[in-house]
Amino acid sequence: MARAYKVVDAFSAKPLLGNPVAVILDSAGLSDAAMQAIAHWTNLSETTFVLPPTRSEADYRLRIFTPGSELPFAGHPTLGSAHAIIEAGLATPRVGRLVQECGVGLVEITVEGEGAERRLTLALPPATVTTLSDGDVAEIEAIIGHGVLREASPAIVNVGAVWVVAQVGGAEALLALKPDFARSAAFERRLGVTGITLFARREGSGPEIEVRSFAPSCGVNEDPVCGSGNGSVAVFRATRGLLPAGGARYEAAQGRCLGRDGTITLAVDAGGKVQVGGACVTTVDGTLLL
To answer: Is pLDDT at 252 greater than 90 in this prediction?
Structure first.
């Protein structure tokens, strides 16, 4: 059966520099096993499947798979899929927004501009933050072979995707890390988390922080540019007093260790609500033959 299929680079306006998500635009009739097999085959960090919504408030329903498992929510697949859906004419923003139904419920996506100028921003699902034990912090340091800052206590941030978040002292140190992925996967499984996202302050002009996200337990050693990971970092920074209490807006860079150049825009309001946004560009537009 032929199914419409796109690959969208998220968090980049230029092809090949963001994080690709494979989007199956007509997924009706596919079994869970078939969806997982397709995601394993594409071997991208996420593959999504567009389905009719089951809730009247939603414009569409999205299922999100890594090569090894299903996620209730993820950031770059949400924005990349919304871009693909708009481009394919499957949904039209109403008053500048779309509503996605997925495993965490309803996710609102703001749409600004058209075509190459389109920018999409998602409202991050409500987060829970759990401080890690000293033993688990020591294990993170063993995994990455480098210390993390203890002043802002590392934590598990659950936004649907569940990230261990910690800060490293300096962007160059962060970019030089070579984690033990087998040890990281065992750590992630023990804690029941998606992966580990680390960040560091950058010097000079441009994005404020550098970010890296690792999820070997999901079959993704390093995610090129991670929306939920960056959203979790924003939550972490807000709850740890690393952002102004009245709210903040900043940019993050991610992907340089993988030859990418992603830029993510984060906004946190005074109540702690987080918005995650960026550009998207279609790099593949065709048909999946099954």
So the answer is: yes
HEC states along the chain?
A: CEEEEEEEEECCCCCCCCEEEEEECCCCCCCHHHHHHHHHHHCCCCEEEEECCCCCCCCEEEEEECCCCEECCCHHHHHHHHHHHHHHCCCCCECCEEEEEECCEEEEEEEECCHHHCEEEEECCCCEEEECCHHHHHHHHHHHCCCCCCCCCCEEEECCCEEEEEECCCHHHHHCCCCCHHHHHHHHHHHCCCEEEEEEECCCCCCCEEEEEEEHHHCEEEECCCHHHHHHHHHHHHHCCCCCCCCEEEEEEECHHHCCCEEEEEEECCCCCEEEEEEEEEEEEEEEEC
Give pLDDT, residue 30.
Answer: 97
Q: Which of 46, 188, 210, 222 is catalytic?
A: 46
What pTM, to 2 d.p., does this model score? 0.95
> Catalytic: 46?
yes
- Please, which pLDDT band fits residue 290 given cuts at 50, 70 and 90? confident
